[in-house]
Write a structure and sequence with these properties.
heterodimer, A: seven-stranded mixed β-sheet, seven-stranded parallel β-sheet, 27 helices, 36% helix, B: alpha+beta
Chain lengths: 847, 414
C-alpha cells in the first residue's frame, strides 16, 4: 500500500532542485515488535489494567526492566521516544505498591509539563484497574510543584504514595522539610529520574548533589531505594547514570518496540554568496517543504530553536494563502497548561495538521507518532536532535525526518559528517558534582537537613574533604560541633540561597519596561549578566527579543524593552589569564598540551552588532564595564617554534613584524605629513607620543610593495589606535580562526552550550613560554569537568576541527568555519588550515 | 582533639570567592563552659532514660499582677473555647490548660530549626506556675523533648501565641525527626494571636504579643529583656563561647511571654463576660462582631444597638448598620432590617441600596422603589468607584437595574 508520504517523497526524489540540496538521504528499515510475555510474579490486577489499555504483551525491554529490578539493581533505560519507556518504571513501581500497601515512590521529571503528563499516565493505570477494590485502585498519587495549592499540600504529605516532582522543588521544598514527610521516606522503595541526558553540566552537577542529600535522608529513615533512570542516546549512559546516583547501574538499550521504516534527509540550503559563504536561510527553505506536506494532509511537527523563529515560521505559512490557517499552530512551554493539552490532543486527533514548536515538545509528552518531523537548524546537541527526530515514527508506517541546516559551524559539519547523528557515538554527558562551590552549597543544605555525625558521609565524597567543609562552616558560625556531631545552627534557610541553574549568588532581576512601568520577567546570575545583558545588548529570554536599556550593579536590576531588530549583539571580552598550576601535560614536537587551574580576569570591552541572516558584523561599539575574576580549570596548548618558523616561511604568519619594502620610509613620512602628524582615528598629535603609519589592507596581502605602500593604503595612527588596528588584523590570523573553530567543535563534543566555555588566543602562552597558545576554560568557577574532558579527547577534537574547516565550501573563511569575514573580506581560512594541518601532521610523527 | 583544616583547601575556597573565617570560633570540646547554665540560672536537672534536661521554675502566687491584670482571676472561658472550636461538650477546666511558648535556633523553619527553650505555664490551685526547659547542648535534644512530653502530660488544651503557624510545627518536626509521634496532636489548641486580631486589629497598629502586653496589659518589661528577633543570636553565641550569662535575658523574655498569655486570656474572658464595661468601650464593636460569629445573635444585636450611640467614622457607622441590618434580617425579618439599610443608604452605602432594592423587588413588591434604590446605588458608585472596584458590584447593579426595568415595562404592557 503506497502511502501519501511515499508519493510525496517520490516527487521530491525526482526534483533536481530539491535533490541538489540534499546532503544525506538515509533509510532505516522497519522493525517488528519484539515481545515477551508477562513475568510470572506480576499481579493479575496489573495485567488486567494493561489489557484494559490495549496492552497484551510486554516489549522485550520492558520485560528485561522488570527482571533487573526484581534482582534489586538500579537501571537506566536507553530506548527511543514512544518506545513504552514509562512502563519500564511504572510496572515495577506499581507491582511493589500492590505487594506492600505502605510503599512509596518518588518520580523526578525535569519540567512541569512532563510531570503533569506522566502523572496522568500513572493515574490512568491506577484507575483503570478492576475490580474496584483492587489494591491497585486509587493509589494516592500527586504532582508536587510550585503550583500545588497550599491547602492540599498537607493532605499530600500525609497520604501520597507516588510523589511526582522536579529537581528544584525537591531541593527547595521537600528535602529541607523532610520531617513532614517521614512516612513517605520511611517507605521509599523507588526513585525514578527521567531524561537524565538533560542533567549535564552545571544542572546535572547540582542534581547529583541533591541526590546525595536525598539518599542521606532516605537512609536516615531506614530506606535504601532502587533507582530507575531513563536517557536519550548519549555516549555514556551507564557512566552518566552512575555519576548521578553514585551506585552501580545496569543498562537496557535494546528497543523492542515496533517502528515503521523511517527516512532521514539532511537538507543544506543553497549558497547564495560564494565568497562570503552565505547560504539561504533555513526558515525560507522549509516553507515550501512544509506546504507540500500540509497539502498532502501529512501530520508534520517542526522544531525551531527560538520562539521568535516559531512565530516567524507560522506567519510565513499563513502568508502562503492556500493553507488552512486553523490547521497550523504553534507550541511552546509558555502557554497555559490547558492550552497545551488542547493543542496536543488536537494534533493527535488530526485537527491540527502542522505544529511548529520550540524544543518544549522534545521531552516525553504523548502526541502519538508523527509522519514528518522537520528540524529547523541543529538544536545544539546530538541527543536533542535525536529526541526531536524520534518524534517521527508510526508503529507500522513510513515516516520522515528532515534536518535543515543553518549556517552555524556544527550544522554544516553535520551535513558533511552525518555519522555523528546516525551512529551511536553521540556526545558524552559530563558532570562534576565535586566542584568546590557546589559542594559548599549542598553540604550546607545537607547539614540543615540532617546533622553529620562522625560516621556520616556525603555521597562518595572523601571523608577528609567533607570534614574540611564542615570545619570551614564551623568557622563561619553556621555549624556547631559538639560530641560527634556537626549540626546546623545558622539562622537562614540555605536551600533558598542556591539555584540549581547557576552558581553565582548575585542574581540580577530582569525587568521589562512597558511604557514606564516595570515588570519582572525572570532573573540572570551575575557572571552571565556582564556579557549577556550589557547596556545595549540584544538579549533573548524565553525566545523573545529584548534590548537592554540599563544594567545596574547596585540594585542588581536589568531594564529591558521589547524590540524587533535585524541584528543580534556579540560581546567582546578582554581577558587576562594567569596560570595557577598545571595539573596534567603532554608534549610533542609541535605542541605542549596542558590541563590545569587558571585565574581569569575578564572585562567586556565592547560589543558588535551582527546581522541575523548573514552573520555580518556591521558595527562595533565600546563599553565600560567592571571586570570579573574567577578561578577555574582550563585546557590549553601552545605551539612550538618549529611550527611558527615553518609558517613564517610560508609568509602566512601575520603575528610577526615584517619588512615593508624599499620605499617604506619615504611613503611613511609622506603619510605622516599628509595627516598633519596626528592620529586619524582619535586626533592625538602629542609630540611625545610615537605615531605609527598603518597599512589599511595588510602588507602581506599584496604581491607588489608599491601597491601596498600606496598613500591611499596608509594612515597615521597613534600607538593606541594602531594597536587596536593591528589586533583587528591579528584576529584575521590563523590563531583566531582556529580558536573560533575549536570553540564550536569543543562545545559540540562536550555536549555543552557555547557559553559554558570561554576561549582565548594569545601570542604568549601563560606558562611562560614564548609560544602562541589557545586556551579553553570552564565558565563555572572551579570548573565543571569540561576542560578536563578536552584534555582527554584532544586528538579527536583537532581532527574534527580540521574537518570542519577543510570541508567548508567557502573560499576565504566564513561564519561556518573560521568566523566572520570582517571589513576587509579576509577570512583567515587559509592561515587556519595551514596551522592546524601542521599541528595534526606533527602529532603523527610522534605516535 | 585536633582541629585542622588543610591550607590548600582554604586557599582553594578563597580563590573561588568564598569568605574565609580567620580563626576557629568553636573551642575544642574539652575546654568548655566558662559559665555553664547551672552557674547562671537557678534550676535543676530533670533526668530520664534519655539523659537530663535543665529546668527552671517560677511560681506566681495568688494576687500576682502582670501589668494591670491579675494573673489568677479568670472569668468564664466557655466563649473562648467555643471560638477556638474545641469539641462540643468540652468544658473548660482551667487546670487542664497548658500555656506554651518556644525559643528557637532560627526563624526559618524546616528541618534545620530546633527549639532550645520551652516555656510552659499552668494553673495549680492558687498558683500560676511557669516551667522552663532549656537545651544545654543540641546533643541533649532527646532528653529535652522527653522532658517536654512528660511535663505536658495531664493537660488537654494548649494556649499559644502564633503557635499554630510556628511553635507547634517546629516541635512536631523535632519529634518526627526522631521518628516519634507528635505528642500535641490530641490537644485542643487556642492560638491567642488570632483571637487578639479579631478584637484589636482595627484599633492597634500591631497585634504582636509584645505590643499587646504594652497597650492592653500595660506591662513594661525591664532592661533584662531581649527582643524576640535577637534571641537566636544569643543562643548561637552561647554555644560558641560557652558563656551562659547573656541567656538570662532569654529566660526573662520567655517567662514573660508565657505569663503575658495567661494574663491576656484572662483579660479576654473578662471582656467577653462584661462587654459593656466602660474599660472596653473602644473594643465593643469588635466584641459584637465576635458574638455574631459565634451565633450569639441576641447579644450581638444588643451590642450593635449600644454602639450606635457612639461617635463613629462614617465607614464604621456603615459597617455597624449593615451588620445590624443583617442580624435583624435573619432574626426579625426584613421590615426591621430595612430601617438600618435606609440609614446606611443615607450615608452613601452602595450595598445598602442594593439590599433595599432586593426587598422591594422580591418581598414588599414595589418595583418603582426597587428601581429607585438601585439607581441611587449606581449614583453612589459612579461618584467613588474605587471603593468597590473588583467586587463585581458594578455588574450586579447593571444587571439589576436592567432586570427591574424590564419587569416594569412588562407590567405596563398588561
Amino acid at each position: 500500500m503506497a502511502s501519501k508520504l511515499a508519493d510525496l517523497l517520490n516527487i521530491w526524489k525526482n526534483n533536481p532542485g530539491f535533490l541538489g540540496n540534499i546532503a544525506v538521504w538515509n533509510n532505516e528499515p522497519a522493525h517488528e515488535a519484539k515481545y515477551s510475555g508477562f513475568p510470572r510474579y506480576i499481579h493479575p490486577d496489573l495485567i488486567n489494567a494493561l489489557r484494559n489499555m490495549g496492552i497484551e504483551n510486554l516489549y522485550t525491554h520492558q520485560f528485561e526492566s522488570l527482571k533487573v529490578i526484581s534482582r534489586g539493581g538500579n537501571l537506566v533505560i536507553v530506548t527511543g521516544t514512544a518506545s513504552g519507556k514509562s512502563l519500564c518504571y511504572n510496572l515495577p513501581v506499581l507491582q511493589q505498591m500492590i505487594i506492600n500497601e505502605d510503599s512509596t515512590a518518588l518520580y523526578i521529571f525535569p519540567t512541569k509539563a512532563l510531570s503533569e503528563d506522566q502523572g496522568k499516565k500513572l493515574s490512568l493505570l491506577t484507575n483503570i484497574a478492576e475490580p474496584l477494590d483492587s489494591p491497585l485502585h486509587n493509589i494516592p498519587l500527586a504532582v508536587f510543584d510550585g503550583d500545588t495549592a497550599s491547602a492540599i499540600r498537607n493532605t499530600i504529605r500525609k497520604h501520597v504514595r507516588l510523589l511526582i516532582t522536579n529537581p528544584d522543588m525537591l531541593h527547595l521544598a521537600v528535602l529541607p522539610h523532610h520531617p513532614l514527610w517521614v512516612r513517605f521516606f520511611q517507605n521509599l522503595r523507588f526513585v525514578i529520574i527521567d531524561e537524565i541526558h538533560y542533567y549535564r553540566g552545571l544542572f546535572g552537577s547540582h542534581l547529583a548533589n541533591v541526590i546525595r542529600r536525598l539518599k542521606r535522608i532516605a537512609n536516615y529513615y531506614g530506606s535504601f531505594p532502587q533507582f530507575i533512570l531513563t536517557s536519550a542516546t548519549i555516549e555514556n549512559p551507564r557512566q552518566h547514570a552512575e555519576n548521578l546516583i553514585e551506585a552501580d547501574v545496569e543498562v537496557i538499550d535494546n528497543d523492542g518496540s515496533p517502528r515503521g521504516s523511517r527516512q532521514t534527509i539532511f537538507y543544506n540550503p543553497p549558497i547564495i554568496n560564494r565568497a562570503l559563504g552565505i547560504r539561504q536561510s533555513a526558515i525560507s527553505e522549509i516553507i515550501p517543504i512544509t506546504k507540500a506536506l500540509h497539502n498532502y494532509k501529512l501530520q508534520t511537527l517542526l522544531f525551531s530553536r527560538t520562539r521568535r523563529s516559531v512565530e516567524l515560521i507560522i506567519r510565513s505559512l499563513h502568508a502562503q494563502g492556500d493553507l488552512e490557517k486553523n490547521k497550523i499552530h504553534g507550541y511552546r512551554s509558555g502557554y497555559l497548561a490547558k492550552d497545551r493539552r488542547r493543542i496536543e490532543s488536537d494534533f493527535r486527533d488530526g485537527k491540527i495538521v502542522t505544529l511548529v514548536s520550540t524544543n518544549a515538545l522534545e521531552l516525553g509528552m504523548d502526541i502519538g507518532g508523527i509522519e514528518a518531523v522537520i528540524l529547523v537548524g541543529y538544536p545544539g546537541t546530538i541527543a536533542s536532535a535525536r529526541q526531536q527526530a524520534g518524534r517521527a515514527g508510526r508503529k507500522h508506517e513510513l515516516s520522515i525526518v528532515i534536518l535543515v541546516a543553518s549556517m552555524s559551524p556544527i550544522d554544516q559539519f553535520l551535513m558533511r559528517n552525518p555519522q555523528y547523528f546516525f551512529e551511536k557515538n553521540a556526545e558524552r554527558a559530563m558532570i562534576n558534582p565535586n566542584n568546590f562551590l557546589l559542594l559548599l552549597h549542598h553540604i550546607r543544605c545537607s547539614a540543615f537537613e540532617i546533622p553529620f555525625d562522625s560516621q556520616a558521609s556525603f555521597g562518595s565524597l572523601d571523608q577528609e574533604l567533607l570534614l574540611n567543609f564542615l570545619t570551614h562552616l564551623e568557622m563561619t558560625g553556621e555549624i556547631y560541633h559538639s560530641g560527634n556531631t556537626h549540626r546546623w545552627i545558622g539562622e537562614n534557610y540555605p536551600a533558598s540561597m542556591v539555584s540549581l541553574r547557576n552558581i553565582d549568588s548575585n542574581i540580577f532581576r530582569l525587568l521589562l519596561n512597558e511604557r514606564g512601568s516595570l515588570r519582572s520577567i525572570g532573573s540572570i546570575d551575575g557572571a552571565s549578566a556582564k556579557w549577556m545583558v550589557h547596556p545595549d545588548a540584544i538579549y533573548m529570554h524565553d525566545g523573545i527579543t529584548y534590548l537592554v536599556e540599563e544594567l545596574n550593579f547596585d540594585t542588581l536590576e536589568v531594564k529591558l524593552r521589547l524590540v524587533e531588530t535585524d541584528y543580534y549583539t556579540d560581546p567582546q571580552n578582554e581577558t587576562n589569564i594567569s596560570l595557577i598550576q598545571t595539573l596534567q601535560e603532554y608534549s610533542c614536537d609541535a605542541l605542549n598540551i596542558n590541563y590545569g587551574e587558571v585565574e581569569i580576569i575578564s572585562k567586556v570591552s565592547g560589543f558588535q552588532k551582527i546581522n541575523w541572516q548573514t552573520n555580518q558584523i556591521f558595527q562595533t561599539i565600546p563599553l565600560d564595564m567592571p571586570e570579573s575574576k574567577i578561578i577555574t580549570t582550563a585546557f590549553w596548548f601552545s605551539i612550538n617554534n618549529i611550527v611558527i618558523e615553518k609558517l613564517k616561511n610560508q609568509k602566512l604568519w601575520t603575528s610577526s613584524p615584517i619588512e615593508y619594502g624599499p620605499n617604506w620610509n619615504h611613503q611613511r613620512f609622506a603619510a605622516l605629513k599628509r595627516d598633519f602628524y596626528s592620529c586619524q582615528n582619535c586626533g592625538k598629535s602629542d609630540q611625545n607620543q610615537p605615531l605609527h603609519v598603518h597599512h589599511k589592507i595588510p602588507f602581506r596581502q599584496f604581491e607588489d610593495y608599491n601597491k601596498a605602500n600606496d598613500l591611499q593604503n596608509l594612515i597615521t595612527l597613534c600607538q593606541e589606535c594602531h594597536k587596536r588596528a593591528e589586533s583587528v588584523l591579528r584576529i584575521r590570523s590563523g590563531m583566531a580562526g582556529l580558536k573560533y573553530a575549536l570553540h564550536n567543535m569543543a562545545a559540540f563534543m562536550l555536549m555543552c552550550d557555547q557559553s559554558d566555555i570561554g576561549s582565548v588566543a594569545e601570542l604568549k602562552s601563560i606558562d611562560g613560554q614564548n609560544s602562541p597558545m589557545i586556551l579553553i576554560y570552564d565558565q563555572i568557577p572551579g570548573g565543571i569537568g569540561l576542560s578536563q574532558t578536552l584534555f582527554e579527547i584532544y586528538p579527536e577534537l583537532f581532527k574534527n576541527t580540521h574537518l570542519l574547516i577543510d570541508q567548508c565550501n567557502c573560499e576565504e573563511g566564513c561564519p561556518s568555519c573560521v568566523g566572520s569575514a570582517g571589513e576587509f573580506g579576509i577570512g583567515g581560512k587559509i592561515e587556519t588550515l595551514t596551522l592546524i594541518r601542521e599541528l595534526l601532521n606533527s602529532k603523527d610523527r610522534n605516535s | 582533639m585536633d582541629k585542622k583544616i588543610s591550607n590548600s583547601f582554604l586557599e582553594k575556597l578563597k580563590g573561588l570567592g568564598v569568605q574565609i573565617g580567620t580563626e576557629l570560633i568553636s573551642p575544642p570540646r574539652e575546654i568548655k563552659k566558662i559559665f555553664a547554665i547551672q552557674d547562671v540560672i537557678e534550676g535543676y536537672e530533670k533526668t530520664s532514660p534519655l539523659g537530663s534536661a535543665f529546668i527552671r521554675e517560677i511560681n506566681y502566687p495568688n494576687g500576682s499582677y502582670h501589668g494591670n491584670v491579675n494573673i489568677l482571676y479568670t472569668y468564664d472561658l466557655d466563649l473562648i473555647f467555643r471560638w477556638a472550636k474545641a469539641p462540643l461538650g468540652t468544658s473548660p477546666n482551667i487546670e487542664r490548660i497548658l500555656f506554651l511558648d518556644t525559643e528557637t535556633s532560627s526563624l526559618a523553619g524546616g528541618a534545620g530549626t530546633f527549639a532550645f527553650m520551652i516555656g510552659l505555664g499552668y494553673f495549680s490551685k492558687d498558683t500560676f506556675k511557669v516551667v522552663q526547659i532549656f537545651l544545654e547542648d543540641p546533643d541533649k535534644e532527646p532528653a529535652f523533648l522527653y522532658a517536654l512530653e512528660e511535663l505536658a502530660a495531664g493537660f488537654d488544651t494548649l494556649v499559644t501565641f502564633n503557635g499554630k503557624s510556628f511553635d507547634i510545627p517546629v516541635l512536631r518536626n523535632r519529634y518526627f525527626m526522631y521518628q516519634n509521634p507528635n505528642p500535641f496532636d490530641p490537644y485542643n489548641h487556642i492560638d491567642l494571636l488570632h483571637l487578639a486580631r479579631r478584637i484589636w486589629k482595627n484599633r492597634l497598629s500591631s497585634c504582636r504579643l509584645a505590643d499587646l502586653e504594652k497597650e492592653i496589659l500595660q506591662f513594661k518589661r525591664s532592661e533584662e529583656e531581649i527582643p524576640g528577633w535577637f534571641v537566636p543570636q544569643i543562643y548561637h553565641d552561647y554555644l560558641f563561647s560557652g558563656d551562659a550569662r547573656p541567656l538570662a535575658g532569654v529566660f526573662y523574655h520567655n517567662q514573660n511571654d508565657v505569663v503575658s498569655m495567661a494574663a491576656l486570656i484572662n483579660e479576654l474572658s473578662l471582656m467577653l463576660g462584661d462587654p459593656y464595661n466602660d474599660k472596653y468601650q473602644n473594643d465593643l464593636f469588635s466584641l459584637g462582631k465576635l458574638f455574631e460569629d459565634l451565633h450569639i445573635n441576641s447579644t450581638a444585636q444588643q451590642i450593635y444597638n449600644y454602639c450606635s450611640r457612639f461617635d463613629l467614622s462614617s465607614d464604621q457607622e456603615v459597617e455597624l448598620l449593615m451588620r445590624a441590618a443583617k442580624l435583624h434580617n435573619r432574626i426579625d425579618g426584613w421590615d426591621q432590617a430595612i430601617e438600618y439599610w435606609s440609614k446606611a443608604a443615607a450615608i452613601g452605602s452602595v450595598e445598602a441600596c442594593i439590599e433595599i432594592s432586593k426587598v422591594y423587588e422580591h418581598r414588599n413588591i414595589d418595583l418603582e422603589k426597587a428601581l429607585d434604590s438601585a439607581q441611587r446605588g449606581m449614583n453612589y458608585l459612579s461618584q467613588s468607584p474605587e471603593k468597590v472596584s473588583g467586587t463585581g458590584i458594578n455588574h450586579d447593579l447593571i444587571r439589576r437595574i436592567a432586570r427591574i426595568q424590564s419587569k416594569i415595562n412588562a407590567k405596563k404592557k398588561d
